[in-house]
Write a structure and sequence with these properties.
single chain; 275 residues; mainly alpha; globular
Length: 275
Amino acid sequence: MLEALKVIIFGIVEGITEWLPISSTGHLILLEELLQLRQEQAFLDMFYVVIQLGAILAVVVLYFHKLNPFSKEKTEKQKMMTIQLWIKVAIGSIPAAAIGIPFNDFIEEKFNNAFVVAAMLVLYGVLFIVIENYQKDKEPKVKKLSQLTIPMVLIIGVFQMLAMIPGTSRSGATIVGALLLGVSRGIAAEFTFFLAIPAMVGASGVKLLHFGLNFTGMQIFLLLLGTVVSFGVSIVAIKFLMQYIKNHDFKAFGYYRIVLGVIVLLYFGIVAVLS
């Protein structure tokens, strides 16, 4: 029962932090310290990634009509535009796939530590504040998904690739990249959601393959529980973010990231000294 409660908390944190640009890794690394699941490390490494599938399912459910090129409610032109959107998502996914597949283990080994996480939290927090101040009085160049060009989606894809460094935040990095290109906040957030689908499904698939199919009954239960909770909370988090950015910028998230980065640095710095 205690393990299930811990997993529910992990699912809640994942569902919130996966879509708000505040780094799920930064939060989970602290949560792991506070709530240690009594499972083998290989399962935990897989668990933290695979519960993202619940978050992805939330995007599919919320944006099913927009993402469905076969909807009978769409005109032929709308269907073609939906197919073009998927092509842009595929192109935007190339940089992360090109680096992530061959170098995933190396990146995790070299960069998956609290100090890198803290540095990335602060760096991208500062970037959010600087970019929002720079774009303050400027009219966005891109106000529709159809206005995203191939070079634009490739550049946004490069920013998603940079998010492989823990603490960066996949949504945070891609939104920063989109804002730099003059994309409106709403479209930046939406394209970030869609770009996450192949990235997170791919990452989850890799982790499942590495782990194999040697699940115990308890592990299956915990994995499903975390995924379901992540799905439900993601629905709320995505709706909140899209409503929030109608009247606000991303600077609040930038300040939050800086504070969290300092907390992570201080906490693990003190732990390192005491040990």
